[in-house]
Structure formats: C-alpha cells, structure tokens
Amino acid sequence: MPDQQGDRSPVNIHLLVNFTKQELVDRYAGSVLGAVWTFIYPLVNILIFTLIFSKLMGARLPGSSSVYSYSIYLIPGIISWNAFANTVVRSSNVFIDRAAIISKVRIFLPYLPLYIVLSESVIFLITLALFIIFLLLTGTPLYPTVVLLPFIYALQQIFAYSLGFFLAILNVFVRDIKEFTGILMQTWFWLTPIVYAPDILSDSVKALLVFNPAYIFIQAYHDIFVFNNMPNLYALAGLTIVVHIFLIFVYLVFKKLEKDIRDFI
C-alpha cells in the first residue's frame, strides 16, 4: 500500500489545482472563443428558459401572475441539479479516467473527485451570477435568505462528492456502475420537483419527498429565490447529519478496499 504520508503530500494539492484548470480548459479546447463559452452556455440556457416557458408557452407558477415566475422557479433548480448530478456522474468514473495518473503518482485517491467538485462549482457560480443579474433586470427582489446559499451549495456538493466517490469505488470492480449512474440520475431528476411544483402531487406522494435528499436542497433554493421563505432548517440540519455520516461510511469503505482498488486499476 502506498505510504499514507506521501499520499497527503503537497503535490496532491498542486495536482488538484492543475486538474481543475485543465478540466475547464479541455471543455472548449480548440474553440475560438475558449473560456468565453463558460459564460455563453449558462446565458443561453437562461434566455431559452425565459423565452420558451415564459413568453411562448406562457407558463405560470401556481399562485403567481408574474410572466417570469415559472422561469425564476425553474432556473435555480436546474443549475443546482446540474452541479449536483454532473459531480456525481463524472466522479463515479474518475478512477477509471485517471488510471494512468494513479499508476504513476502517489496521489491520495479521495482527492481525485475534488477537482470535479471544484470545476462544477466554477460553472455553478458563473450561472448563478447570470441568474442574479436576470433577477435584477426583471425587477425581482433578492431576499435576505440569500446569505444561506453558500451553506446549501456546500451541503449538496458534499453529498455529491460522497455519492460520486462511493460509486467510483464500486465502478472499479463493476463497470456497469457507469451506466447505472446515468439511469439513476435521470430517474432521480424526475422524482424531484424541479420542472414541476410539489403542489401538483398527491398528499401521499408529497409525504415521501422528505426521503429525497435532492428535494431538501432544491426546495431550499426555491424558498430563497421564489417564495421568500426561510428554508426548512430542520430538514437541512437532518440532511447535514445524514450526509456526513454517509461521507464517513464511504471513507471507511475506501480504506477497507484501497489496496484492491489500486490493484484493479
């Protein structure tokens, strides 16, 4: 087994930063506009959501007469879900994708998914900034509860990291995990009130939403940006405990299987 002290050497932090930079560069490598696309894609998505749902389809959020109400409901859920789902999906294959690096560098394996968390966070922050500009341009107020955003985002990404890391461990031994993860996230998306309001669900189905971790943080974004409500702090506190217990569990599984993981890779 690699020396644990060596695994935690500063070179790992240096590699993590380089991986993050390279990840962002590689997305648009060879394109004329380069990193500008990082801003263009989120902007286009916001414009599409606004044009199609608000203008062409005339979609309205129940109980609101604002022409932009549905777009304002949809966008924060979509951008937070994208950061969460992309982190899980891409992290689940990180050991396979970086097998060459793992075989040559004494890197502490739990560090690897972190560069995905960081790169997705950059995209999220850019998109969120554009969304806030959109809110200001449409005269939509920002409420004081916006100060809770860093906590909520950190919580969702710790969960995404933990789940992605767990699936990455499994993926080393069972390569079908990659396809399973894609199906899991697609199904999970539609089981979470992101493109629809939970009010359309029956009471029995709504009662089950408390067991959906994604619903807890997605609803928190909706409370902050749409309903001017304080997010459910009890639900967030409960999710915080569950997520950290799961993180500890995943780390213990990793420590148990670390030698096998390196051997299989």
Word description of this protein:
- The chain has 265 residues and is mainly α.
- It has one domain.
- Helices cover 73% and strands 0% of the residues.
- The chain contains twelve helices and no strands.
- The chain has helices at residues 4-7, 10-27, 37-56, 69-91, 94-97, 99-104, 112-137, 149-173, 177-191, 203-208, 213-227, 233-264.
- The radius of gyration is 20 Å and the shape is globular.
- The two termini are 14 Å apart.
Can you tag this structure with a few keywords?
265 residues; mainly alpha; 73% helix; globular; disordered N terminus
Q: How would the blueprint of this fold be written?
A:
Blueprint lengths: L3 H4 L2 H18 L9 H20 L12 H23 L2 H4 L1 H6 L7 H26 L11 H25 L3 H15 L11 H6 L4 H15 L5 H32 L1
* Mean residue pLDDT: 84
Oligomer: single chain
Q: In total, how many beta strands?
A: 0
In total, the number of domains comes to 1
End-to-end Cα distance: 14 Å
Q: How much of the sequence is in beta strands?
A: under 5%
Helix-strand string: HHHHHHHHHHHH
Uncertain parts? 1-11
Helix content percent band: over 70%
Structural class: mainly alpha
Gross morphology: globular
Using the CA coordinates, give the radius of gyration: 20 Å
Number of helices: 12
Largest sheet: none
